[in-house]
Amino acid sequence: MNVQDIVNTVSRKAGLDQATTEKVVGTIFSVLEHEAEGTNVSGFFAKIPGADDLARQYDVMAAGAAGGGGLLSSLQGALGGVLGEKAGALINGVAALKASGLDMAQIRQAGAALIQQAEAAAGPDLTNEVLGSVPSLKSHLGIS
């Protein structure tokens, strides 16, 4: 199963268009890439061909990644600076998802579908190891 298969399935299950789903999947993968230090995130991405490219395409730490500008961007920059890159990646990722017009229910539905597909592609143990290292992402996606 490659990343496009995952995007197609998440799109269908979450009722989102392809472009929005690609952004959701890429953004979540980017947060994992930045935050899942000390885990086998490279092994996780290796099991899902194209995942690392999609994560880089939607890099949450790239300048202007969360979009919008203004006070929110200033606040994100300040929090990211104070809390470090890991917290900044999550804050930017959630902001990017919300900026794409999704509400939290849609983000959670897409996130849950993504986790199911990642487990099918990379295996539940590896997926849980990578996700377990980013518990705040799991809570934002409504996963316990």
What would you say this structure looks like, in words?
This protein is mainly α and 144 residues long. Helices cover 74% and strands 0% of the residues. It contains nine helices and no strands. Helix 7 crosses helix 8. About 14% of the residues have low confidence.
Topology:
Blueprint: H1 3-14, H2 18-35, H3 41-46, H4 51-57, H5 70-83, H6 85-99, H7 104-122, H8 124-132, H9 135-140
Helix pairs in contact: 1-2, 1-7, 2-4, 2-6, 2-7, 5-6, 7-8
Index terms:
single chain, 144 residues, mainly alpha, 9 helices, 74% helix, globular
Number of strands: 0
Helical percentage: over 70%
The chain-level structural class is mainly alpha
Q: Biggest β-sheet: count, sense, barrel?
A: none
Shape: globular
Tell me what portion of residues adopts beta-strand conformation: under 5%
Question: What is the H-and-E element order?
Answer: HHHHHHHHH
Regions with pLDDT < 50 over 5+ consecutive residues? Answer: 66-85
Rounded to an integer in angstroms, the radius of gyration calculated over CA atoms is 14 Å
The gist of it:
74% of the residues lie in helices and 0% in strands. It is an all-alpha fold and 144 residues long. Helix 2 (18-35) crosses helix 7 (104-122).
